[in-house]
Design goal:
375 residues, 16 helices, alpha+beta
Length: 375
């Protein structure tokens, strides 16, 4: 069995024979056989030697063919090949768009590296470097990309490497843990007060009151989404290449939910001209929301934080967890198996009444307050 050697870093590397390749001998001008080895680097000597031994034990013509066929590809070439295979499987344009974004911006130190030259040490160092990459280089005080974004990027890189090589131990690679994002959410009353009468009142209420995301709100139409007093998520609209793209299905099955339309929101819907309930772009909606907060001196929360505010209201009202999860479309295995098919039971109607009553009481109070001011 091959013996591991200690590296200057303190880790151990063991070389395992993979195969032979024909190469040109510059001295004789003749072709000769060259032995090719695979490197395994681990924290402990025995771990490196075990990985090398396992590789040799599992070495088959198929694995050797994969290494010979794809080993000379650079990572960016492998990503091109991987994206092509995903497009053939009908992956969403938004998913493909994000893959290309990662290819352009993420793990740039790795993109021109050949797959056969990668090992766990190189990948771990690349993750460390990527974790410090500025999220917005144009900002005066750029922050590094989030741990969540890094995990999304690594999801693509690891999937590509899984597909085109089988000699890497991905269990030995660690990612930074996501930091808990702490946001001070404003009271629902304050949000209702600043949006009343504005051109973004309807989308803001759909997010905060009914817990719809921006893409879900942009996908709502009178013709497909409204049936009687209920609003159903049937389509979503996202931006692909700067242009709106309408998809038939939401992010996951639990997101394709429906809610009873509160009378106040219905009154806003009835004033909308055209089929789409919200026709403005996601970028426009986001900037209008931020500008509105600036006008009223509020600390910024994102448009998506309005869904978190909805969750906080449900916690305040002590809505049972299973109904809160169902209303918000937050997916778990338990939700999928035990809750999703139980929509609109008598208890669910009571939850609707409770949440609608909370927001309607605030709206009535604000309207009475405005009437007194006029008088």
């Amino acid at each position: 069995m091959a013996k591991a050697k200690k590296l200057p870093s303190g880790k151990y590397r063991c070389l395992a024979f993979s195969h032979t390749e024909k190469v040109l001998d510059p001295k004789t001008g003749q072709m000769k056989d060259k032995r090719v080895y695979v490197s395994f680097t681990r924290e402990k000597r025995k771990e490196a030697e075990l990985a090398a031994a396992q590789f040799q034990a599992e070495r088959t013509p198929a694995t050797l063919k994969k290494r010979q066929e794809y080993g000379d590809m650079t990572l960016t070439e492998a990503i091109d090949l991987y994206i092509g295979s995903r497009e053939m499987l009908g992956r969403s344009p938004t998913t493909i768009q994000d893959y290309r974004c990662i290819q352009r911006n993420g793990f740039q130190d790795l993109m021109q590296t050949k797959i056969k030259d990668m090992d766990e040490v190189i990948l771990q160092e690349a993750i460390r470097v990527e974790a410090g990459r500025p999220a917005n280089r144009r900002s005066k005080h750029p922050r590094p990309i989030s741990a969540k974004r890094l995990r999304n990027e690594w999801g693509l890189i690891s999937s590509v490497l899984h597909k085109y090589t089988n000699r890497l131990n991905f269990d030995a690679i660690e990612l930074p843990r996501p930091a808990n994002r702490s946001v001070e959410l404003p009271p629902a009353r304050d949000v209702l007060r600043i949006v009343r009468g504005t051109d973004i009142e309807l989308p803001v209420l759909l997010a905060m009151w009914l817990s719809f995301s921006m893409s879900e709100i942009r996908g709502l139409t009178k013709s497909k989404s409204i049936s009687g007093d209920y609003l159903t998520i049937r389509e979503v609209v996202v931006d692909v290449g700067g242009e709106p793209y309408r998809k038939d299905m939401a992010k996951n099955p639990t997101r394709n939910r429906r809610h009873r339309i509160p009378p106040y929101i219905m009154s806003l819907i009835e004033k909308v001209e055209g089929d789409a309930l919200v026709s403005m772009s996601g970028k426009t909606l986001y900037h209008k929301w931020i500008h509105l907060q600036d006008e009223h001196g509020m600390d910024h929360i994102t448009f998506h934080d309005l869904r978190h505010l909805n969750a906080s209201v449900m916690a305040l009202l002590r809505v049972p967890d299973k109904y809160a999860q169902e209303r918000g479309g937050w997916k778990t295995d338990k939700v999928m198996k035990e809750i999703y098919m139980q929509t609109f039971s008598e208890e669910r109607e009571r939850v609707d009444d409770l949440i609608d009553g909370y927001f309607e009481d605030i709206m009535q109070h604000e309207m009475q307050h405005e009437t007194k001011k006029v008088q």
